[in-house]
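Support reply, case 0932

Customer input (verbatim):
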Amino acid sequence: MLAEIREVVAGKLVVDTTVPLKAPKVMRVQLPPEGSAAQRAQAMLGEAVTLVSAFHNVAAHKLAADGVVDCDVLVFGDDKAARQRVVRLAHDAGLRGLHGGALANSAAAEALTSVLIFMNKTYAIDGAGLRITGTLVTPGEVV
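Our regenerated output:
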């Protein structure tokens, strides 16, 4: 899919939500050689595309339904202004988006998805997510 959209998204911001899951062992972390699916996507799309990764740890069925989604969205990207746009997108969708740092850090959220799938099964949870605790202070930015 990335090869198909590469030319169309040149000069644009792409939000990548990919999690590298390999059936049947989706409850086991399996990151690609590049370090993260987001880094692989950036390499495939090229430098003309600004890639930000987010929404890895929010259950898709929770996003699709009306109602409160009780978890945070970790947002990763090498361009801070682009990350901020996706933080605002999450906020506009009724979620709390939080800067997670560089695109390479996306590996942590991608890996946590396998852990959350394991927890969903083990504890019969309907879409476990993450919530960052503590008081967040970020002047001038939506958090």
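We compared this against your earlier run and they match. Two observations from our side: The chain has a mean pLDDT of 93. The two ends are 31 Å apart (CA to CA). Please reopen the case if you see a mismatch on your end.
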